[in-house]
Amino acid sequence: MKKKAKEKTHEISRRDFIKTSATAAVSLAAVGVGTNRMYAAGSGKIRVALIGCGGRGNGALNDCLNAGKHIGREMEVVATADWFKHKAEDTGKRRGVPRERCFGGADAYKKLLETNVDVVSIATSPNFRPVHFEAAVKAGKHVFMEKPVAVDPPGGRRIIEAGELAKQKRLGVVAGTQRRHQSGYRRNAYAVEHGAIGKILGGCVWWCGGALWYAKRNENESDADYLVRNWVSFTEMSGDHIVEQHVHNLDVANWFIGHPPDNALGFGGRARRKTGNQFDFHSIDFDYGDGCHIHSMCRQINGTDGGVNEFFAGTEGTTEGGGRMRSSKNIDIPDFPEQGGAYVQEHIDLLNSIIKGEPLNEARNVAEATLTAIMGRISTYTGKLIRWRDIMENKDSPWYNLTLKPTAEDFERGPVTAPPDDVAPIPGRDR
Questions:
Q1: Residues β-bridged to residue 353
Q2: Contact 191, 281 (CB under 8 A)
Q3: Tell me: the pLDDT tens digits for 6-37?
Q4: How far apart are CA 180 and CA 184, in angstroms?
Q5: Residue 277 CB neighbour total at 10 angstroms
Q6: What stretches in the chain show pLDDT beneath 70?
Q7: pTM, to two decimals
C-alpha cells in the first residue's frame, strides 16, 4: 500500500501541474516573494542600491560589492538615496549611477524602492530605519541594514513585525551586527551553546572610548538639516551612544546567553558633550533571570581609558566575546570562514543565503539587541527599573508607547522642530 501511494504522487497530468503551479505563483505573489532570479547561481548581475550615503553607508556599499567578488557574482549599483541630494549624487557618480536614479529628500527612499533593485543597503540614521526597512520589505527587496534599528520601543517592535513579513516573502535580512559573522565570535558562541563554560552566571560588556564627531549649526540652517547632519548627538536621531554603539556588545550578551534580559536598572550622566542631548556615560545592571547579571558600561569622553569587549563567567569556565576561552571541556568546534573581514563576511552570508533560496533573517536579533539598549537608556534617563515586558508586552506601561519626536514620518510631513542643544534628562527629583 505504501508503495502504491508513493507511485500515485507522480501521476499528475500536465493540466493539473500547470494549474497547481499557477495557484502557487499567485500565492507567492500575494506576499511579494523576493527577486527569484537571484536564487540561480550565475544568473546575471546582482543589482544593489544604497539608502543613506554617509561614511558608513558608503562603507557598507563597498563591503557589499567586495562580497560579490568573493562569491563570483557581478554586482551593479543601480540607485542611491539620501536626505541631501548632493550626497546621493556624489556616491552615484563614483559608482556609475545615472543622476536620474540619485534621489534626495525625505521621500528619496520611496523613489529608490521603485527602481529595479535586488538588494538594498539601509544606512540612514537609526530613527529612520523602521520606516525604511518596512518599506523595503513591502517592496519585496532583500535588505542589509546598519545597526541599531530603532530609537524607541515602538520602532523596535516595528522592525520585528517587518522581519516576520520578510520571512513570509522569503527575503534576506542581515544587520550590521558583524560580530555574528566574525570567526572568533562564532567559534566561541558555538562552544558556549555546546556547554564549554556551563551555565552563564554573569559577566560584563563594555564600549568605552573617546567622543565622536559633532556638527555645529550653520547660519539659517533648518532644524531638519541640522538634525540629519548632527544625528549622532541627538537621542531622537541615534538613540544615544548606548544604542548606536554599545548595541554591539549587548547583542553579544543576548546571543551567548540565549535571550534578552528581564529588566535593567542603571545610571548615567552628561558633562562633556558639545551639542545635542545625550549622556556621556551609562552604567547598567541587566538582569537576565535565573541569577544571571551582566554589567554594561559605555562612555564617550576624551582623555579617558577605553576598551571594547565582552566577558562571561559560567559554571565550567569563562570566555571573552571573540577572544580567549578558559574551559576544562574538550569541545569539537567546526571551522567558521571569514573572508575579507567581518564587515564583508556579513554581506557574503546574506548574498549566499539569497542565492541558495534559504535567506537569512536577522531582524529579530538586531531588534532585540536594540531594544535591550533602549531599555537600558530609559533606565539611566529616568532612574527607574525598566522591565522587558514594559516595552514589549504591557500596553499600560508608560514605556510601551514611548515615542521620540520628531519621528521619521514627521520629517516627511514637513518642517520639524529640533530638541534644544545641551539639555539632557535628569533622573529622580530634588529632596
A1: none
A2: no
A3: 333 333 333 343 333 333 333 444 444 444 45
A4: 9
A5: 20
A6: 1-43
A7: 0.91
